[in-house]
Design goal:
The structure is a single chain. By secondary structure, the protein is α+β, with helices and mostly antiparallel strands. Among the domains are: 96 residues, Winged helix-like DNA-binding domain superfamily/Winged helix DNA-binding domain (Arc Repressor Mutant, subunit A, Orthogonal Bundle); 130 residues, no CATH class; 74 residues, no CATH class. Helices cover 44% and strands 12% of the residues. It has a 6-stranded antiparallel beta sheet. A hairpin with a 7-residue loop joins strand 7 and strand 8.
Length: 437
């Protein structure tokens, strides 16, 4: 395969990953990450693969790689979490993994000796959190469509508003809606373990997956299958530990649930470091303090995972009297961890005045994510080897990147209609199976 000798293959790979649902800006650290994880032959395959899910026959025609060799390469990449293989309607369909949720998480869920976990942990930390580059590329312009959303702890919700919690907002209901489950190593906690900065005693194996996602991880030895009962018990332990529950940013067919702590979670650290709260979409609830019940103990201040609760300065006329802390409502995630720690019951979650938008499915989320980040044209015309599609990507991409166009399509007024057109188009292209993912 003489086409592999070019030194620029990793630059091409980086460009390909940057054109997926989450932007992955190029720098020396990202280059080092790619060289650590992909062989040149694997990088070349990813560059030539379609951007979306494709059957192996389609991949063979596009990449011009002999089927047995192609299958071996794909199997190896799936075992490393660098390619997704989802079993849909009796057929395996393959797609390159995005940087998040994908390359970072699946790499750090690995346990074998085939990857230098200390080195890759240092590289990931430097790339995702060492600079503002990655965070800014995805959230600096006020982007609202994140791959993750917060789940409220149900016991933290005010009693008179508990009946308003919908099933997609309940961690237990999400678990009950599935029939396949897995638990694997938390990528963030595993990374901090190798960096020597882990500050908690939470077990490494807490990352929960469901449905298609669980099937992918189990088949590729990236997590272990568990029962529904075990998953519900796992959820109960996370509440006892006061962990932040954050899940797939969809209402239907949720694929994962993270159990995050303040010291290890890279996303929570990113919010505190860079001030982009939309990195995690909030729950539909917000923490409010009853000043009459609050003792001013400060436990909620210490518990808040993003430092959104501050101690108020004492009143000069009564310096010994503790004032209730103040919740920054522009930052509050609505996770309820603070309320779990409040011994007086003075802090509870209450319904936000304006309901938060969540995509219905992964199909909708990816479409909207890509539209926000200027990469939707690669999902619409996903064959990188087609000259005709390259021209269409340039034309349509330029149109979709126009600020008035993007703003209109993402608005409450036109968003549903736009997504309806996308779904109809997928059906006409024989990809109706993707709409319900």
């Amino acid at each position: 395969m003489g086409h592999l000798v070019g030194k620029g293959i990793y630059r091409k790979l980086g460009k390909k990953i940057d054109q997926l649902a989450m932007r992955a800006p190029w720098n020396a650290t990202f280059h080092a990450v790619l060289k650590e994880l992909y062989t040149r032959e694997e990088a070349d395959l990813i560059v030539r693969m379609p951007y979306g899910l494709s059957e192996i026959e389609t991949l063979g025609k596009i990449t011009k790689i002999e089927e047995s060799r192609l299958k071996k390469l794909l199997d190896g990449l799936c075992k490393k979490g660098l390619v997704l293989d989802l079993y849909i309607e009796g057929i395996y369909r393959y797609a390159p993994s995005p940087i998040v949720i994908g390359i970072f998480e699946f790499t750090m869920m690995r346990t074998g000796s085939d990857v230098d976990l200390k080195t890759i942990s240092e590289l990931f930390h430097r790339y995702l959190l060492g600079r503002e580059t990655f965070q800014a590329a995805n959230f600096k312009k006020g982007e609202r469509i994140s791959p993750m959303r917060i789940l409220p702890h149900e016991t933290a919700v005010a009693a008179d508003e508990y009946v308003e919690i919908l099933d997609y907002e309940k961690a237990a209901a999400i678990i009950e809606s599935h029939d396949k489950f897995s638990i694997g190593i938390c990528s963030c906690r595993h990374e901090k373990h190798h960096l020597g900065t882990r500050g908690c005693d939470v077990p490494l194996e807490v990352c929960s997956s469901f449905g298609y996602s669980a099937d992918y991880l189990i088949r590729n030895n990236l997590s272990k299958e568990v029962s529904k009962t075990e998953m519900l018990e796992h959820l109960s332990r996370s509440q006892e530990r006061g962990l932040v529950l954050n899940t797939d940013n969809v209402k239907n067919s949720v694929g994962f649930m993270c159990h995050c702590c303040k010291c290890c979670c890279s996303v929570l650290l990113g919010i505190r470091k860079f001030g982009y709260p939309n990195i995690m979409v909030t729950s539909n609830f917000i923490a409010l303090i009853d000043p009459e019940e609050c003792s001013g103990c400060g436990l909620c201040v210490a518990a808040c995972p993003i430092d959104a609760i501050e101690v108020e300065a004492p009143d000069p006329s009564a310096p010994k009297k503790k004032k209730p802390p103040r919740v920054d409502e522009t930052l509050c995630l609505g996770c309820g961890v603070c309320a779990l720690k409040c011994k007086k019951g003075a802090l509870k979650l209450h319904r936000r005045e304006q309901r938060v938008f969540y995509p219905e499915t992964s199909f909708e989320r990816v479409i909207l994510q890509c539209l926000e980040r200027g990469t939707l044209q690669y999902q619409l015309f996903d064959n990188p080897g087609s000259i005709g599609q390259k021209i269409l990507r340039a034309f349509v991409g330029g149109f979709l990147r126009l600020p008035p166009v993007k703003k209109a399509l993402l608005s409450d007024l036109l968003r549903s209609r736009f997504l309806g057109v996308m779904k109809a188009g997928a059906g006409k292209l024989g990809k109706g199976w993707a709409v319900d993912l």
